[in-house]
Amino acid sequence: STTLSSSKRESDKKTRKRAFWLLLPFFVLLALKGEDIGADTDQYTLMFQATQFDIFDKYYDRIEGGYRLFLIILTKIFDHPQWQYIIFAVFSFIVFVYFLERNSCKPEWFVLMFLALNLYAFYMTGIRQAIAMTICLLAYEKIKEKKLIWFLLLVVLAMSFHTAAMFFLPAYFIAHLKTTKAKIPLYIIIFVIAAIYNEELFMFAGDAFEIEYGIEETGNGYVMIGLMAIVTVLSFLRLRTLIAYNENNKYLIQLNVIHMGLWMLRLFSRTAERPSMFYTFFTILLIEQLILSIKNKETRAIANVGVTGFATLYFFYRLPSMGITPFEFFWN
């Protein structure tokens, strides 16, 4: 037992070190980006300046209280609006390294998919929701630890930065449902009902938070839904193998189902893309676990090459429309 515990600590330490160096350059760029990088960066700069001159309420009356408090504290300490992006990047970097240390064996795959599936580009523009999404990574740890109160507190904190975090509230309860193939018909029924009443759901979402961000106009709905369908089908076909390999995979499978459902709704409206982003991290982890749980070395190697190749090609295909190139630093 002592030997196993020592081995796990050594493995976690190696994962943390790899995650640190893999993520560092991307979050340095996130901290030092110029105002033209990211569709909404200029607006966040204006919000910082509006807080400095005490005119925030005049122009931004619908912004969540947690983010407003964040700006108030920052403007009491710093004069330059770039500090908003630096603090945001440092916080996200620390949480990401912690999250990967505890949940990933191959942080290289996570980082590659993080880039390819547009999450990094979103972090370049949607600071409020990105902070909320990062907080929800911490909330996932409370799902695994079965600490409901802490989970709720963290999600409420996330909601104080972006109301869309409300869509992560069901995660705890759905993740703790018994993961069985018998639930597949139930999931299909729920998906069908959601598709039929998608307009009502979108009206609710539209009232809850405004979604007018260029990042959503990606045109990649069918590619993503195809990827989601493959991951979802494979996760249920290999259900026992996945859970035997890592018991926490039962949570990833359930969270991926939510992600799949939201992406089905996304085919009707891009409104669903915002809440779906809270679950993309867990689909990425599930892809990793699907590969690692393959016993045959040759098959695992082929899957590794296939996923790596797809993610790399898809990233470069999407790169021109991500709004992050050509990159400029804030001092340019």
Notes on the structure:
By secondary structure, this protein is mostly helical. Helix content is 73%, strand content 0%. Helix 2 (41-52) crosses helix 4 (65-77) and helix 15 (249-266) packs across helix 16. It is globular. The termini are far apart. The model is unreliable at 211-220 (pLDDT under 50).
In short:
The protein is mostly helical and 332 residues long. It contains 17 helices and no strands. The relative contact order is 0.12.
The quaternary organization reads as single chain
**Count of DSSP H/I helices:** 17
Q: How would the global form be characterised?
A: globular
The secondary-structure element order is HHHHHHHHHHHHHHHHH
Number of strands: 0
Helix/sheet category: mainly alpha
Beta-strand percentage range: under 5%
The largest sheet, given as strand count, sense and whether it forms a barrel, is:
none
Low-confidence regions: 211-220
Q: Which percent range fits the helix content?
A: over 70%
Terminal CA distance = 55 Å
Instruction: Using the CA coordinates, give the radius of gyration.
Output: 20 Å
Mean pLDDT: 88
